[in-house]
Amino acid sequence: MMGNITLGQYIPGESVLHRLDPRSKIIWTVLLMVAVFMINTWQEYVIMGAFIAILLIISGIPVKQSLKGLKPLVLILAITAILNIFFVKGTPLVKIGPVAITYEGLISAVMLFFRLVMLVVAASLMTLTTTPMAMTDGIERMMKPLERIGVPAHEIAMMMSIALRFIPTLMEETDRIMKAQASRGADFDTGNLLKRVKSFIPVLVPLFVSAFKRADELAEAMEARCYRGSKGRTRLKQIRFTMLDLKASLAGILFLILLFGPRFWLW
Amino acid sequence: MIEFKDVYFEYRSQSADQPATRAINGIDEIIREGEFVAVLGRNGSGKSTMARLMNALLLPTRGTVWVEGMDTSKGEMVWEIRKTLGMVFQNPDNQIVATTVEEDLAFGPENLGVDPAEIRKRIIDAARYVGMEEHMRHSPHMLSGGQKQRVAIAGILAMEPKCIVLDESTSMLDPKGRKEVLNLVRTLNRDRKITIILITHHMEEAVDADRVMVMDNGRIVMDGTPREIFARVDELKKVGLNVPSVTQLMHELKSKGFALEGPVLTVEEAEESLKAVLDKRRKTRGAPDDTAGAGAPSEVIVRIRDLTHVYMPGTTFEKKALDNVSMDIMKGEILGIIGHTGSGKSTLVQHLNGLLKPTSGSVEVDGLECGKKTLKELRQKVGLIFQYPEHQLFEETVYKDIIFGPTRMGLSVEEIQERVKRVLKILGLSEELLEKSPFELSGGQKRRVAIAGVLAMEPKILVLDEPTAGLDPQGSEEVFSFLTRLNKANGTTILIISHNMDQVAAYCDRVAVLNKGRLEMLDTPRRVFSHGERLHELGLGIPEITRLFRNLARAGYPVSDNVLTIPEAVREMAGTAPGQGHDEGGMFQ
To answer: For the ranges A26-30, A206-210, B387-391, B585-589, which has the lowest average pLDDT?
Structure first.
């Protein structure tokens, strides 16, 4: 059953992070992620870790939820950690045949691990506190200046949000069609790659037919509700850069100074 | 409010050699403000085209349509027209634009450029009105069909319309959802004086309208109050429509010489007029019973023991869909499976051909234990037809689509061709269709072709999930007539999931009632439907005819309290003779 997938994984809440303008959230998430890549001393790791932990507490998001994004990365994480442990040269700790686990290797594996965790948590802090709608709104507004050079900002944002809206619906539909074709003897699991790819034709054709039909009907429904592009359109949720965003941004700047300042002072 | 003057409409054809299809063939009609109009007609009669002409989604080929004095063909008025006249479409999924309910409700007012504070006020109002205020932050795919349609209606209310057109908006809903939407529409008409145009092929829905229009071949062929229209039973039949079952019963009784007045639209009215007749009559014959069918040799074909199924065990979404179900399905029977949405019907049948595996318990089909090794054989024994099977058609030609299953069974070409012929005959499809693309067929034909693809595998057990959903009365009748044919001729065991109690009562040998994943009852329709109160508690109904006779019997009239179908009801009434009424009492013990 794929009926329960949540997209954008938004968790409703009223925290400061929830109330921020999506634009400031997008910008600050990017800055934070860049900063995570730049840190390299253990002191910086501690400050960064503490900061992200505080944000997590403020947001009221359960820790488990924020770490969910790590799941698909586990394999990559494991491989890079192993590579680091065995191939970083330095003082050997344990020797297994020709390869040695070095002290430096262990350290860099641990750091890499924490770096990835922080990246994932930082990214999910944004996706978990922002509705997909607000996110597309934010992107639309940030792209607004590009409209002058012919970038259809509103249309792109509208397409993104409709895609988000229909992904669960189409997943359910795929599930249904696969079951129906399996009932008619279709076999998706055996044979070589080519055969398996071919076995999906009976699923893909109906899926496309239905997607086009849905698109057609949705367009009609949107027209019937007076949709005519961005012209003269207002928004229920005005996204506005408020005092809160200003304060948050100041806090963010202070944090960056605290994090990287010592590099200059200690010079 | 809306005026059609000499309106014609043609759909341009795709290719040059085909003539344009004329969908609307001369309509002159005025719909007044505050009216509740039901538009009836079979599939393809032009109902939906007429609706689209009203809000300028389509423009007439000839003639003019005015909405509140605005000519729909004048481009500059189009937004004003669509604001005045909102439209709810058939498929609940394909009209919700946004990822949350509240954003979707705001979509219309946003397009109109309404001030954000005012939008907020309007959507809260609208959500409250349709009873969805608790779901403002919910994502649409978590809602039921009925809830989605209520969201669609609220989205239109937020635009402050004067008229709402519902284009078959109830046809994809379960009975509960349908009731929700109809009640809402009725209140809107009564309390807010919003003009309602309800397009449907469910006759019962037209009963509450002020006015009924019947369409056929792009024309309005009848126009009047429900009472006037439903009196013309034979004419309605001619245009492929039905009347509510009590109306049909009273019509047949009248033709049998019973002195009944005027057409009857509801069970309550039927009760009153039958009481008047029965007061002067007494009973001459016994009650109907099931002994005729019983005693037939019964061999078990499906054995289900302690079947439990849990979806997504161990997660927050964990759901027990089936809870310790044990039942036997008999060879050659037609078994109805009823239960409200989410009661476990679909989960149950998906175990029969191994699409789902039991969490615990066992399923044995025709001597085969369901498991990985038996999967292929199992799927040949059990043909499973999902709701809207036409959505699964994919081949270039009808023939190729039908042989998809048989080919995978490894049958010889001759055998396959033989089977295709047999199947077409059972389904009443012509061989000319075979070389056509399945996508150019009509809705009813597509459905039958999709069913043919499963029948050609010649399963011993055929399972259908709501085989008549979305079909008009004629289409539904066709489906049931070939199912009974199949059952009689080949002895195929048939399982039907249905929400339509009239169908269950008329065609099924036994009925299984599911509730919250448990098997609540399994018995003949007559015995199951005698538990009217319990079924009502489970959110299920009983056939109208059954309800009518139960009410009469309870009031002490000399009829059986357990009548299932119209023919039975006619016989039951014929089984009374003029003479002493029930008031004398003591006659019938």
So the answer is: B585-589
pLDDT average, residue stretch B447-465: 93
Which of B87, B97, B351 would best serve as a mutation to test chain A binding (most A beta carbons within 10 A)? Answer: B97
A225 to B439: CB separation less than 8 angstroms, yes or no: no
Burial code (b: 16+ CB inside 10 Å, e: under 16) for A12-50 equals eeeebbbebbbbbbbbbbebbbebbeebeeeebbebbbe
Residue of B nearest to A215 (CA): B94
Q: Indicate yes or no: CB of A217 within 8 angstroms of CB of B404.
A: no
Pairwise CB contact (< 8 Å): B139 & A6: yes
Give A7's contacts in chain B (Cβ within 8 Å): 99, 139
Q: Which of residues 395-434 of B touch A (CB under 8 A)?
A: 404-405, 408-409
B110, A237: Cβ pair inside 8 Å?
A: no
- Do residue A227 and residue A249 come from a single domain? no
3-state secondary structure chain A: CCCCCCCCCCCCCCCHHHHCCHHHHHHHHHHHHHHHHHCCCHHHHHHHHHHHHHHHHHHCCCHHHHHHHHHHHHHHHHHHHHHHHHHCCCCEEEEECCEEEEHHHHHHHHHHHHHHHHHHHHHHHHHHHCCHHHHHHHHHHHHHHHHHHCCCHHHHHHHHHHHHHHHHHHHHHHHHHHHHHHHCCCCCCCCCHHHHHHHCHHHHHHHHHHHHHHHHHHHHHHHHCCCECECCCCCCCCCCCCHHHHHHHHHHHHHHHHHHHHHHHCC
Mean local confidence (pLDDT), A217-231: 91
Q: Which range among A182-186, B221-225, B316-320, B513-517 shows the weakest confidence by mean pLDDT?
A: B316-320
Q: How many domains does chain A have?
A: 2
Q: State the average pLDDT over residues B8-28.
A: 80
Asked if residue A246 and residue A173 are part of one domain, the reply reads no
What is the pLDDT, as a whole number, of residue B421?
A: 92
Question: ipTM score here?
Answer: 0.86
Architecture of domain B300-523: 3-Layer(aba) Sandwich (3.40)
- Does residue A235 have a pLDDT over 90? no
Q: Which of A122-131, A217-226, B11-20, B506-515 has the lowest mean pLDDT?
A: B11-20
A2 in any annotated domain? no
pLDDT at B289: 58
Is residue A249 in a domain? yes
Both tokens assigned to B389: 């099977």
Domain ranges of chain B: 2-239, 246-290+544-584, 300-523
CB B453 within 8 A of CB B402: yes
Location of structure tokens 């199951």: B528
Residue B587 has pLDDT above 60, yes or no: no
Q: Which residues of B touch A181 (CB under 8 A)?
A: 392
A1 in any annotated domain:
no
Residue B371 has pLDDT above 90, yes or no: no
Please say if the pLDDT value at position B292 is more than 60. no
pLDDT exceeds cutoff 90 at B43: no
B83, B379, B391: residue with CB nearest A185: B379
Confidence category of residue B283, pLDDT binned at 50, 70, 90: low
B577 or B450: which leads in pLDDT? B450
Instruction: Tell me the pairing of strands B300-311 and B211-216.
Output: unpaired
pLDDT(B146) > 80: yes
Residues A93, A29: one domain?
yes
Domain co-membership, A197 together with A241: no
A36 part of a folded domain: yes
Homologous superfamily (CATH) of B2-239 is P-loop containing nucleotide triphosphate hydrolases (3.40.50.300)
Residue B71's DSSP bridge partners are B66
Q: Which domain holds residue A122?
A: 9-130+237-267
B389-417: average pLDDT: 91
Pairing relationship of beta strands B36-40 and B21-31 according to DSSP bridges: unpaired
